[in-house]
What does this fold into?
Amino acid sequence: MTPEDIRKIAGLARLRLRDDEVAKIAAQFTGILGHLERLRAVPTDGVTPLDHPLPLTDVLRDDEPRAGLLQGEALAAAPDAKDGQFRVPRVMAE
Amino acid sequence: MSDDEGREDRGRNGHGPGRRTGAGLAGGESGSAPEFHELSARAIAAGVRSRTIAAADVAAHFLARIEKFNPSLNAFLHVNPRLTLAHARGVDAKVAAGHDPGPLAGVPVALKDNLCLRHMPATCASKILAGWMPPYDADAVARLVTAGAVPLGKTNLDEFAMGSSTENSAFGPTKNPWDPRLVPGGSSGGSAAAVAAGLATLAFGSDTGGSIRQPASLCGVHGMMGTYGRVSRRGLIAFGSSLDRIGPLARNVGDVALALEVMSGGDAGDATTVHRFGAEWAPELAGGRCTALDQDVRGLRVGVLRAADGVDAEVRGRCDDAVAAIRAAGATTVDVDLPAAEHAVAVYYLVAPSEASSNLARYDGVRFGYRSPLDDGRTQGSAPTASLDAMLAETRERGFGAEVKRRILLGTFALSAGYSEAFYEKALCVRRLIANDFARAFETCDVIVSPTSPFPAFAIGAKADDPLAMYLCDLFTIPASLAGLPATSSPVGATSSGLPVGLQIVAPALREDLVFRVAGELERTYGAAPLPEAYR
It folds into this structure.
């Protein structure tokens, strides 16, 4: 794992990292991935991936209206809100 | 600890550390009557329901203990005495009006700070959620409160439940009640320490790869996770959704069984809950008794996991003693092997971070939680001049701690184009092999036992700079997490230096009753978990 690799992943995850963090994480990832890469040696031909521990399928609830959060409750914890909406910094460059 | 309000409230009530107790409820002990923190949840509930004791007195007693002991222990992040006493008085009022408050009437409970309870913060021990107040109760918490439980406060954890020591908290580490130089384990370290020190009768944690069982082991208490799907995850702040489970911690196994039964049930708010259970452990909720606990282990086939490398000799010794005790009580033992489980830690550290990287994408500084003020000189001015992208990246940089960032990056990598087949999908295939190993092992035995943790509590700081060494703490607990199976850690004595050791008991899906039969036998051998000297 190079510092460039770490920066690329951090960009995908919308995480900004300081230069010293990048170097430290790159070194730690080399050790961690070394352990994780042992999985490659396990034969898994024909094995169905297990993405969930229970064999549940198509669990549906009745399609009935239910109470949810009111607008005020949903906005109450927002760092910035205006006119009943979440307010964010500008999205597009000028 | 944020003591939100009501410090004067406590003074006004004048409840010091109680000498008033539920005499006779602990089972005919001679000498001085037990104090409230020495009673089981069932004894407290019985006393409150019969008006022998008042829930408000019990609550005040525990609030006083928290005030006395928490500054050094740091088990609780938030308490709100006014809210706690209001809950307790509500329980007493119900009893006075002739109504039954439920099987947990007046039982003081502590909640890990990733469980939502209205009117209390839920921070996940992260700066990114500091001060956030959830607008609803977790399903499991609502069930506890409906059953009469009295919430005392919110307990410390590794940030977003990522860790095995409760050192990765934005609000400082929790200490182990048996030795303040040591970690309590994690990530539910605050809940384990609170119960171990008698600051709560019951505590609740979440377990993704061992986060209830490992701290229970290191603090010398019982900690249980039911089958995946038995307890709704609604209102548990998500980490790894195919792994996360809520469960109880207590100093005796009967309280664990009762609490788990109360929390269980299908929930339309969590599509992964099981609506129809298979084998029940059949407690009579009215009496709070779990019948499986009264059965002995005669005829039970106990699988003993093949010894792994790197297990502390004393831990191995205590666990061998426990297995001998179970055998002496009439169980048969058989050696079992889970060959694919040697890869469990690797599987877990691909699956859990992958799910976490997705779940934690919601922390964006827009809808709730922390938003970076963008005032550090790199970006002049307030929101209108900054860009959304810059705000987002900086909010996450400042809001998340090092371990959370590491896991988000690991998961993002494991899911990224070109790598997901080799890492994430491979991990899911090996996860299947581990589940298959359990299924094969359960053809020859009813439960599987092993040490919960390879070693007893370790020094604060000892593994802080070595993430891989920390990950290997969960060697024994991760396999049952991956397979969705019920598992508990039961205390089985201590090392020569007095540190608790726990035995893990794993059963097939929805067979919690088998776990309780073995745990009940161990409790007959070892007694209920003792309080450390300093907290008696």
